[in-house]
Amino acid sequence: MKAPSPVLCAVLVCCAAGGLCRAQDSAPAVRDFSALPANTWTPIDREDGAGGKAFARVIYAESVDRLYLWGIGGKMPDRSRYLRYELESLRPTAPGWRPAFPAAVAGRWTAEGYPPFRIYGQMGTDGPRLRAVGGYAATNWVRWHEFDGVVRPSPIHTFHQACWDAQRKRIVYFSDDTTFALDPATNTWTNLKPSTHPACCRTLAWA
């Protein structure tokens, strides 16, 4: 296994800085990654505090040179809405997290307008309900929904597993007895439907 590049390491820390860490108020503008010092954490981008998916796993998709975050998160103007699409990506050479919309709806869905998920029992009627788990106003149950001919899994708040499948050039996720994959070339999802699943607690939530 080859060592992670300075670019990847540098971007990972900026993700933490945009979520739970507050070590620096600003990040320098970095464009020449070859000049970054080795074995040193260097923030290269910082969100405005409205974004971030605190419990999502950062996965680097080598085939498209992007980092991906999937899950519930982002600015929440009320208890039923999140103002960020559940799948976001960042290209290291152009820092800034952007919605990773499926290729089939490129140009039709925008950051300001796309079919949303909503939290069960709360306000809003324009999206599928996400059942509340414990004290969290978010779900850890994966359910599949179709929007404009595109199938999406309902996003997870925390405790999902993910890794990069280099042989098949896809990101593989596991949560709630469900194993599924993301094709970063088209940002489309596939339910892999294995015949078995690992021993695990089916639904996890912090109390």
Q: Can you characterise this structure?
A:
With 207 residues, this protein is mostly beta strands. Helices cover 7% and strands 25% of the residues. It is built from one helix and twelve strands. It has one helix at 6-19; strands at residues 59-61, 66-70, 87-91, 94-99, 118-119, 129-130, 144-147, 150-153, 161-165, 170-175, 178-183, 188-191. The strands form four sheets. The protein has a four-stranded antiparallel β-sheet, with no helix packed on it. A four-stranded antiparallel β-sheet has the order 9-10-11-12, with no helix packed on it. Strand 1 and strand 2 form a beta hairpin. It is globular.
Name the features.
disordered N terminus; disordered C terminus; 12 strands; 207 residues; mainly beta; four-stranded antiparallel β-sheet; 25% strand
